[in-house]
Amino acid sequence: MKRIFAAATAMAAFSVLAAPPQDTPAGEQRFRELYKELVETNTTLSAGNCTLAAERMAARLKAAGFPDSDLHPFAVADHPKEGGLVAVYPGRDPKLKAILLLAHIDVVEAKREDWTRDPFTLIEEDGYFYGRGTSDMKAQAAIWVDNLIRYREEGYKPRRSIKLALTCGEETSSALNGAGWLTKNARDAVDAEWALTEGVDGDLDAHGHRIALEILAAEKTSQNFVLEATNPGGHSSRPVPDNAIYHLVRAVDRVSHFEFPVELDDANRAYFTGMSKIVGGQAGAAMDAVVKNPQDVAALAILDKDHNWHAMLRTTCVATMLAAGHATNALPQRATANINCRIFPGDTRDAVLARLVAVIEDPKVSVSIPEIRGPIATAAPLTPQILEPIEKVAHELWPGVPVIPALEPGASDAQFLNPAGIPTYGITGIFIDPDGGNIHGLNERVRVQSVYEGRTFLYRLVKLYADQ
Ligand SMILES: [Zn+2]
Question: What's the pLDDT at 433?
């Protein structure tokens, strides 16, 4: 997933979308065909095939001159359609660790009957690319593949090797996660000094003005908790006060009123410090105040009105599913609720569970963890080695637009790489609209110009990193 930036406040905008930097028309056309092929290869869990999409990208790399020995398609026997690809672009200095370009190539489900246009056809209309995955995240996946093709075409010899990993299973929590699988089963193949992937983008305001380029250094961990109340039940004509549904709804209600304490780390501190200058006014002052004093109640009240800022400041938990009862004329024997929590970096599952038990304060309602998908996300350090090249290329392309670190309330595949010792940063250089381009939703879209600019940005950025 990617984060949607949605500040309601009026903001200083730094540059109107200007003409994008141009590659040769032939180069842009080749990129567009590659992107189109990727978008038009359905990679939903239900009907799609990531393995096929990865094979198609491998075929393009092979056609560009990559030897088979540098192309490593992979798939797990039980999940034949959820495969991926690792490709290597060798560097000059074998003593230096590689950098890893990571992209998930699976997409969220999309029903043709719900969409205005076919979700699996790349359609350009009114300056936008429409289609499932156009934004999340086949644009960046296509850019990664295209980067390697361009480098080879130029005869570019980087100091560090550049690795590419295209993986499946990021969008569906029950699916096999390719990035996680690689860190467990092919750790050497993806070993890298650090990795780049999705997470946050450039922010446009409603008029298409660039506000900031975000870089993701920390993200929260998604964890489900199940609340359950059980009861012997009985005939509904003879009700008793001790009712599983009543216990459960009271518990859910208590969760709804509970707020986890505010926490600051390097990522959200840097975000609010940088954003306060852009946002200005009352909200900007509130950001400065919270960075100074995370317990500043008045300032928090202002920031908490924005659902994104609210989520960046703390662990959150929210009810997402309910199930209860077995007959319309019976007292319920069982009532369950799913509570989806987004755990702040550094907090633990056990601590959140203990907090929920304390908040619910009802021994008749149990709280349990149904499944653990991966380790708790840790933050990657924002060193000058990481930040300076981003600032340099951003300044070349979009002078005056600030680079702002961010904490992502959602989760990406960084959750698997960071704990495996590969610091992972989200950076796309793709500027998106305030509504986020409706990723995961209907009629997903991204500005055509933003995709081409992101391509230029990442092409230059990866070179700077690979030559470090
Ligand atoms: Zn994504």
Answer: 93
| C-alpha torsion angle, residues 320, 325, 327, 333 (rounded to 10) | 170
Q: Give pLDDT, residue 14.
A: 54
DSSP β-bridge partners for residue 403: 213
- CA 285 → CA 239, 269, 271, 303, 451, distances in Å? 54, 14, 14, 10, 34
Separation between Cα atoms, residue 428 and residue 407, nearest integer Å = 15
How does residue 42 score in pLDDT terms, banded at 50, 70 and 90?
A: very high
* Sign, CA torsion 44/46/47/53: positive
| Coil/strand/helix, residue 44 | coil
**Alpha-helical regions (H) of 258-334:** 266-279, 281-292, 297-303, 307-312
Cα separation, 260 vs 443, whole angstroms: 35
**pTM for this predicted structure:** 0.85
Helix (H, G, I), strand (E, B) or coil at 374: coil
Express each pLDDT in 61-87 by its tens digit.
Answer: 999 999 999 999 999 999 999 999 999
Residue 17 has pLDDT above 70, yes or no: no
Distance (angstroms) between ligand 1 centre and the Cα of 282 equals 33
What is the separation of C-alpha 85 from the centre of its chain, rounded to a whole number of angstroms? 20
Is 215:201 a contact under the CB 8 Å cutoff? no
Whether 338 and 319 have beta carbons less than 8 Å apart is answered as yes
How many angstroms does the Cα of residue 411 sit away from the middle of ligand 1? 9
Centre of ligand 1 from the C-alpha of residue 112, in Å: 20
Torsion of CA 383, 385, 386, 389, to 10 degrees: 140
- 248 near 321, Cβ under 8 Å? no
pLDDT bucket at 22, cuts 50 / 70 / 90: low
413 CA from centroid of ligand 1 (Å): 8
Distance between Cα 417 and ligand 1 center (Å): 15
Return the residue matching tokens 């550049």. 162
- CA of 362 relative to ligand 1 center, distance in Å: 38
